[in-house]
Amino acid sequence: MRHEARMHAESGEWRRRFAEEARSERPGLALLCLLIGAEADPGLDEAGIDAAEIELDRLAGLLPFRPGGPRAWAVAMAELLGEQCGFEGTPGDYQRLESSLLHEVLRRRRGLPILLSVVWMEVARRAGAPVYGVALPGHFVVGFGPRDDQVLADPFDGGRLLTGQDAELLVAGTAGTGVQPSMLTPADPLNIVQRILNNIRAWAAARPERSEVALWALDLSLLLPAHPARLRYERAQLLVQRGDFLGGAAALEEYAEVVTAVEPTTADRVRQQARAARAMLN
């Protein structure tokens, strides 16, 4: 019981820091990702978070001093992280929770496209590169330079530089459309964090026995300054599925209050679900 109480207290502290960082003027992407990792991995402590930040600093120090324009930066990053350090992804990485946790991606040098892109962005940013994330439909890459001189690289593919045709093929394969200018704009750090948490929830949804992962991912999503109201409904449903009928019913009623002014029919249906959840206590 004492061990569980300590873990609960640590989780509360990580969540407090996560909420504080997410609401800061310039949210730190690496720190937010590492705090997600601390929620997932009880073995990740303050020293582990510091070690991950130090590793990002170390990698940045291995880059040549200001190699040139956007293409030169992208080539230098691909040579360092892709060729020398072996950061890349494989289809099997989609089946591992560790592929969504920054400290594990730094250790294993494997991960989902978005986490490998976070490594690239954080290393390149520390070295002074004009870098940002690009959230293509179904695939995350990194961009260097302004729109009229933009260079895209795919960290999941070891940092392969993408031609315009490559980007068209990526988008066509997932969205069935061509590349739109809006798809190539820099991704907001908090949107990146939300997308990472969505990936974690999708991983857990395919594994009902890991519903606790879906729950903490939802809890963290709700700490972000802007989030879909429907996440509250999903959390309430998850509580009921996990057998917390009282907590789930209360959460359903809270959601019904939020939507009653704009969707009264939905609110009535959710209240019925709350009553059904309470009935399961009998």
From TrEMBL:
Source species, domain of life: Bacteria
PANTHER family listed in its UniProt record: F-BOX ONLY PROTEIN 21, SI:DKEY-261L7.2
Coiled coil: none
Record-stated family: Belongs to the UPF0162 family.
Organism this protein belongs to: Streptomyces anatolicus
Protein name, per record: Tetratricopeptide repeat protein
Signal peptide: none
Domain Protein SirB1 N-terminal, residue spans: 74-198
Pfam families, per the entry: TPR_9, Transglut_core2
Matching InterPro entries: SirB1_N (IPR032698)
